[in-house]
Amino acid sequence: MATHAAMPSRGSHGSGTRTTARHHGPLAWAVPLALGVIFGFYAAFIERDGGPVTGGQVVLGLVSGVVFAALCFVLGRYRHELPRELRAAAFGALTACAIGFLTSLTNTSVLRSAVMGALVGAGVFCVAFYVYYTRED
Q1: Closest CA to 105 of 71, 56, 69, 34
Q2: What is the model's pLDDT at position 75?
Q3: Which pTM was predicted?
Q4: How many Å apart are CA 65 and CA 51, to the nearest integer?
Q5: Which residue from 39, 62, 133, 136 has the highest number of Cβ atoms inside 10 Å of its Cβ?
Q6: Is the dihedral of CA 113, 114, 115, 121 positive or negative?
Q7: Which tens digits make up the pLDDT trace of 52-76?
Q8: Spatial distance between the Cα atoms of 35 and 105, rounded to a whole number of angstroms
Q9: Residue 117 CB: number of other CB atoms within 10 A?
Q10: Which residues are bridge partners to 18 per DSSP?
Q11: In the chain, what's the furthest Cα-to-Cα distance?
Q12: CB contact at 8 A, 99 and 68
């Protein structure tokens, strides 16, 4: 009669303990990989500046894409363990660094790169905080 009260909760294995291992679905790998490829191609494209493709540009695109994809994967993996303020700040900081780096490849001043990164990062922080605040976990 009261069996519904004794049912194990979602994510447990009968004893009431939660597992610590997480299963990564295909999107957990595909989204950071796609973002890394796009970021790497765009970084190499900016560095090319209309000239011929060189090995240095390919290496720049490859390394920057791998680093960006790894950071996106790590942030996606641990975002649920962060409070909403820190989670929004992490997404804002990642975006600010990415935009600042891409802007610096255009041979503009360091100040412009920093300002562009800070403005875009602040915008992403505001949007992410709003989304996380209105949709509590």
Answers
A1: 56
A2: 94
A3: 0.78
A4: 21
A5: 39
A6: positive
A7: 889 999 999 999 999 999 999 999 9
A8: 18
A9: 22
A10: 12
A11: 76
A12: no
